[in-house]
Amino acid sequence: AQTIHQWPVAEIKAVGSPLSLGCTIKGKSSPNLYWYWQATGGTLQQLFYSITVGQVESVVQLNLSASRPKDDQFILSTEKLLLSHSGFYLCASFWGAYAEQFFGPGTRLTVL
Amino acid sequence: QEKVQQSPESLIVPEGAMSSLNCTFSNSASQSIWWYQQHPGKGPEALISIFSNGNKKEGRLTVYLNRASLHVSLHIRDSQPSDSAVYLCAVTNNAGAKLTFGGGTRLTVRP
Are B2 and B99 in contact (CB under 8 A)? Predict the structure, then answer.
């Protein structure tokens, strides 16, 4: 069975500090991977997607970047956090007959 | 750019009642429409999808799609307190590669 893991579970960071969030998918080769962001009480927005290692497409500009260093790994990062980066970050992939998107457990980020 | 709007923002129903949630989208050529359930602090979980005009039923869930009016609805029969969650409507294109979500409907089912 396919599973999506995210780390860390939660982070509290200072404005201006760097950030790295990780996502690993197990049980599926060459997955499409996605990063989503959800502000508290806000709409889920797709940030990045990646079809293959080394290739990442940006969907929404939020002063964040993403990388796909391995087939099963997707990293979201920034060198300088802003207050507006606070929220819930979700990694997702899709599989199945109906191309259903599955989401990881998420990382809660608080920027102070 | 695809736009997805959901109504109402919040819905409170008594246990055993029918819950009806609405979603409108902007692109009639959109592929599938998905409904997701999200509990606080968790990732969304897919409930049901529909591609063709008409209705689709799975257990207590029924979804209706009308592409001409760009409208889809989700109905939960015999609502239970455990159904209390945020329900998200999402529209896909490119074989599921891009999902555009609505703002969600917060459903509360009172015992």
Answer: no
Token digits of residue B78: 């015999």
CB distance A103–B96 less than 8 Å?
no
Per-residue pLDDT tens digits for A11-54:
999 999 999 999 999 988 888 899 999 998 889 999 999 989 99
In this structure, what token pair is assigned to residue B43?
């990732």
Chain B stretch 8-47, residues whose beta carbon is closer than 8 A to a beta carbon of chain A: 32, 34, 41-46
Provide the shortest C-alpha distance from residue A104 to chain B (in Å). 6
The answer to whether the beta carbons of residues B36 and B44 sit under 8 Å apart is yes
**Rounded Cα distance, A81 and A63, in Å:** 8
